[in-house]
Each structure stands twice: as structure tokens, then as C-alpha cells.
Design a protein that fits this description.
Elements (H helix, E strand, L loop, with lengths): L4 E2 L3 E4 L7 H4 L9 E3 L2 E6 L2 E7 L3 E8 L28 H8 L6 H11 L1 H6 L13 H10 L5 H15 L2 E5 L2 E4 L12 H7 L5 H16 L26 H4 L10 H8 L7 H11 L10 H11 L12 H15 L3 H11 L5 H5 L4 H29 L3 E3 L6 E6 L4 E7 L8 H21 L1
Antiparallel strand pairs: 1-6, 2-6, 3-4, 4-5, 5-6, 7-8, 9-10, 10-11
Helix pairs in contact: 5-6, 5-11, 7-8, 10-11, 13-14, 16-17
Protein name: DNA-(apurinic or apyrimidinic site) lyase
InterPro entries: DNA_glycosylase (IPR011257), HhH-GPD_domain (IPR003265), HhH_base_excis_C (IPR023170), OGG_N (IPR012904), Oxidative_DNA_repair_enzyme (IPR052054)
EC number: 4.2.99.18
Amino acid sequence: MGAHKLSDWRKLPLSLTELCIDTTLRCGQSFRWRKISDEWHCVLRGRLISLKQDASHLHYRVTWPKPTGSPVTSSDSIPAAGDGDVDTEQDDTESLLRNYFALSHSLSTLYQQWAASDANFARRAPAFTGIRILNQDAWEALVAFICSSNNNIGRISQMVQKLCIHYGPYIGTIEGEAFHDFPEPQALSGTHVEAHLRELGFGYRAAYIAQTAEIISYLKGADWLLRLRNPESPAFAAPITRPGQNETQSSSSSDETPITYRTAHEALLTLPGVGPKVADCVCLMGLGWGEAVPVDTHVWQIAQRDYHFSTKTKTKTFTKVMYNSVGDHFRSIWGPQAGWAQSVLFTSNLKAFAGQASGAGTKSGIVEEAIVKAEKMVRRSKQAHSLAEDYGMGVVKTDEEEVTTTFVRSRKRRITAVTKVSGSDKKHVGAVEVEVHTRRTSKRLKAAAS
């Protein structure tokens, strides 16, 4: 690597249950990590970090930038990586990694707490241990998740990579692949940025990125995002004051209202291209608000499928009220680190991890499938019965020892609900099937577990 400074491999004692980088670094949190020859690489805070992991340790190595000018890839306006005058003996990379992976939290303890309060989490989590929420730079998280709108992880990663190549400082090369740091707001706020990003395939997101960069650079100030952080989850280092920023912009007022998750979320919504989901992604992964629960199509599917979540409204539009109610529902189950728990189930719902999630051919997979089917059948019967009682229509009761049947008729549907069944009366065959299915499932579970 020429004149680059390269540290020796160092290690942190860390089990795979506390951190699994192969899952955490590719589950849609950060989009710049690249895996080359069984090692993960990314530029953080002006240095190129390489990671690898075994059962008991996280190993890391640092490549520092060249001491003089560095190559660029798109235009002369790209800033140099730095003078490289770094004393590696006083390397703070270990502190950076501890902060980045939020290692102050005991993940094993959190998993135990979530499993104790949520049977669904307890069933799915064993296949997805070691997923931590990354404590990322807020500016990077903001831009990356603006790119995530109507997008998938692969395309988001490509867009973020293009931003780094064309606007970020070059740091180093590994096996022929160049690595750049993430661009500062001013680098993305030029007059031709939007047009260039459209040429690069960003579409309508190009305007959002350019406008947001302008606002952060010249209107709100460099540390506006820093002031939105959870005070209990500090950033690794304070941002550098940028040219054109005055003292009023860079310092917080003593009479400011104390920041909360809700106020941080609402503040982010004022930026172009930031809706509730993007704001929650930034709150969770860039500002340290563990209770933030980003709700996208995956999480909405999980809420409906696994937690029987439903709304009283018949509208197909996903309103802000509906969005907030899903987040509140999960916060009531998982507590102050609900966003961390959500990330585990989110990951289990991704196609990239389908094999890991299915437990194909295993007893646990068979048991889970049986449980879900049984719960669904019983739930439908109970919901129908509840509807019948609400309508107060056509209630027919016989002896308690035999059957209680309720019929509901309306213009759109006819519902039959049964609470108790005995015998083989053909009029109640549907209910008999529910009961028999439940008993057979119970036998199947016992057989599978034995």
C-alpha cells in the first residue's frame, strides 16, 4: 500500500453472541462496508478499518492515509485525505470501534429481556444472535437513508458508494479496490451536485440530498445534528467547524428545550426527503435513540403477521397515526431499546437471510410452523365471535356441554364463530376442524420436541 501507514492486527475480546459482524454489517444499517477475502473494510473517521472475527475476538487493523496529497477519482474539488501525520502508538481506533458498535450495551442481557416479554422474539432470535445497532455518524446516516426511499439494500449501497467515490476523500486501496471516506455536507452542496447525482442514477433523491446538504452546511450549522443526539449515547467526537459557519450556528443555546426522541424525530422531518421512516432510521442508527422503531414494509408485515396488529381505519394509506401506533406497540413490548429488538426481526424477514431464518429441516422450524398455524386458526375463531357479540345479531346457543354458535350476516360477509364444540354435528363441521387441528398441532409439537 505504498506510503500508507498500516497497523498490526489487534483484537477485542468479543463473543459472536455479543456481535456478529457478518450479520450486523449487511442487514441494512450501514452501506459502506465491503467484504474482501473474509475481511470487512470501511473508512471511518479518516482511517481505513479492516475487521475479521473468530468465536472469541474481534480483530481489527488500521490503514492510515498517505502523508501528502492523495489521488482523486472525479474532480479537483475533492479534498485531500489529510497529511497522514498520525502517531499510531496513540491510535484511538479501539475507542472508535467500541463507540461504533455500542459495546457499552450487553446484548445477551437485552436478548434475554426481549425473549422473556415476547414469545415471537424468543422463537426467532436464536438464529440471529449478535445483531447490534451501529452508532454511526448522523450526517452519513441521514444521507444514506434519504437514498433508501423506495429502494433496496443493494441499490442503496451502490448509491452511497458513488457518493464516496465522487465526493469523498480517498484514504486507501485494498486488493485493487479504492476506499473513500463519506463526503462532508459542503462537498454535496455545490451548484452542480443535483444534476451530477441525477446522471449517476439517484433520480428524485438527488434534489433531496443537495438541498439537505445546503441546509446543514449554511443554515442549521455543523453541530445541529449533534444537538439532536441522545445525551446518553454520545457521538465519538465533536464535528469540525466548517467554513462559513458562525459561532451562533456552532454552539447550542443554554435556554434550549431538552432534547427527546420525539423532538429529534420532528426536527428531522423538516428536512427535504425525510419522512417518518427515514427520521426513525437516523434517530436509531445516527443519533442513539434506541426507542426509535423504523416502520417499512418489512416491519409492517411483521406487525401484522406475527403480532396480529391491525388498525380500525379501512384506508389503504399508511398514515402518520398508523405509523406511530406500530412503533408504540413495539415500544410497549420491548421497552427503551425497542429499535434494537426490531432490527433482529427485521433482519430475519430479509430475503438475504431466508435460509438462516427458516430453520429448514430442523425441529425448531417444524415447531414454529405448527405454532403459527394453530394460533392463526384459533385467532380467526375468536375474532369472528367477538364481531358477532359486537353486532348483537343471530346468536344461537345450545347446551354448554355441546356447542355455542354465533352467526353474523351483513351485505359483505357471513361469519360463523364457535366457542365450544363436542360431537359431530355436520352444521358445526368447520368449528370441529378448528378444534381437531389444534389438538393435532399439540400432538405434533410434543412429537417434534421429543
